[in-house]
Amino acid sequence: MTTFSYKATDASGRILRGTLDAVDEREVVARLQGMNCIPIRIEASQGELGKFSLGGSFRIPDLFQRVSQRDVLFFTQDLHALLEAGLAMDKALSILINVAENDKFKEVVAGILKSIEGGNSLSEALANYPKVFSTLYINMTRAGEAGGVLPGVLERLGVFLENAQDLRDYITSAMVYPLFLVFVGGVSIIIMLTFVIPKFSVIFADMGQAMPLSTKMLLGLSNGLRAYWWLIAGFIIGAVFLIRRYIQTPAGRLKADHLKLKTPVVGKLVKSVEVARFSRTLGTLIKSGVPILMALQLVMEIVANKIIAGSLKIVYDRVKEGDSLSSPLTQEGIFPPLAVQMISVGEETGKLDQMLLRVAENYEKVVRAMIKRFVNLLEPAMILAMGLLVGFIVISMLMAVFSMNDIAF
After folding, report:
1. Is 401 domain-assigned?
2. Does 199 score more than 50 pLDDT?
3. Can you list the alpha helix ranges (DSSP code H) found in 68-149?
């Protein structure tokens, strides 16, 4: 038996929260429906599955009260559950306003409800909040409304957003420990250079003894850091600012993206991430009834790397002229041969959406495996680098201390 936490609504629209012990989610749904309740969200309690739950109560973005992708994910999943249960759109949105934990997002949902009550469709209401709902999200919703399959489209959108969120969470959690090592190691070295070593420099100066070269270098670095820390900090901040400003320009963005693709390890990782994003987005759009040309246009907007986006523009033009999707992908060389072959099979069998989603699943696994290997190599490399730096400082000090034995009394 597993403990599940649930959020549901009764016939009066009152929000109910609690936990139930059950074999699986279907049993929880059946029991809630037996209680005349409509399930909104059901999640296994943390620790039961040994898995990070998307329903955690503590979230960094909530500290700043901004709308996060996680808020949009929960909104999509909850709206699908309520519409699938037969509730009208305005009733479902009214419930979601009460469910929303983020006050800013609660205002967004209230604005969407007001727009719908004014006679607009859901996609038109979502379009009023372009910073919250992407063009992809709005167009998929519009396609679902046109085809009369909005609940199904919302379900696929929920799966799409959840997979994207899982990948982001995995990358973020994988980089937490390396970044922590850099921070702690950097702070430790700065403290040693600015507070510990100057104590020894006074002793060495009073002794009047010639010091080893490594000790002189270390003391010079310490004195320079203490005397010109403001200049060093200003230089670093200025350099970061100028580089970021340059990268924000079209030419700078192209050069940065080109450099990413040419970097040995990073380039392969970037390609794998973009392949997974392209395949899942295009597959989800096609499965939701969006025409392939419109779907390709939407995909080009969400591809982060401008070099790959430029290649996709050529692919779009070729498909617009009547060519298949796999042929220009092969010629552009932006997709691995296996992925292109799977897409070609999907075109031949009329199951392009299914094959694209399968390609996305494969390359999301590849991305996770690459990040895991990269982190496994990065952690000992960083520990070694920090150890060498600290070792150099300690040995330089010890050499100076041992040189005192040569002083003639």
Report:
1. yes
2. yes
3. 69-84, 89-99, 103-117, 122-126, 135-147
Q: Which of 243, 241, 242, 239 is nearest to 231 (CA)?
A: 239
Tell me which of 53, 68, 88 is where a domain ends. 53
Alpha carbon distance 67, 72 (integer Å): 8
Q: Which residues, other chains included, contact 323 with Cβ-Cβ below 8 Å and sequence gap of 6+?
A: none
| Segment holding 38, helix H or strand E | strand 38-44
In the predicted model, is pLDDT for residue 61 greater than 60?
Answer: no
Final residue of a structural domain among 53, 68, 92: 53
H or E stretch including 9? strand 2-9
Beta bridge partners, 41, equal: 7
Query: What's the burial of 20, exposed, middle or buried (CB within 10 Å: 0-12/13-18/19+)?
Result: middle
Which tokens is 92 given?
A: 């479902």
Q: Which of 30, 35, 27 is nearest to 9 (CA)?
A: 35
* DSSP output for 210-244: PPPHHHHHHHHHHHHHHHSHHHHHHHHHHHHHHHH
- pLDDT of 100 above 70: yes
Whichever domain contains 168, its CATH number is 1.20.81.30
Same domain, 163 and 31: no
Q: Examine residue 356 and state whether it is found in any structural domain, yes or no.
A: yes
Using an 8 Å Cβ cutoff, are 286 and 335 in contact?
A: no
Mean pLDDT of the chain: 81
More confident residue, 46 or 85: 85
Q: Kindly state whether residue 166 falls inside one of the protein's structural domains.
A: yes
Amino acid at 65: Q
Same domain? For 242 and 363 the reply is: yes
Q: Which domain covers residue 3, as residue numbers?
A: 1-53
Which residues have CB under 8 Å from 153's CB, separation 6+?
Answer: 140, 141, 143, 144, 147, 288, 289
Given pLDDT bands bounded at 50, 70 and 90, which one contains residue 210? low
- 230 and 366 assigned to the same domain: yes
Strands of 15-22's sheet in order across: 15-22, 2-9, 38-44
Q: How many domains does the chain have?
A: 2
**Does residue 182 share a domain with residue 49?**
no
- Does some domain include residue 92? no
Do both 18 and 166 map to the same domain?
A: no
Q: Which residues pair with 244 in a beta bridge?
A: none
Residue-level pLDDT at 240: 92
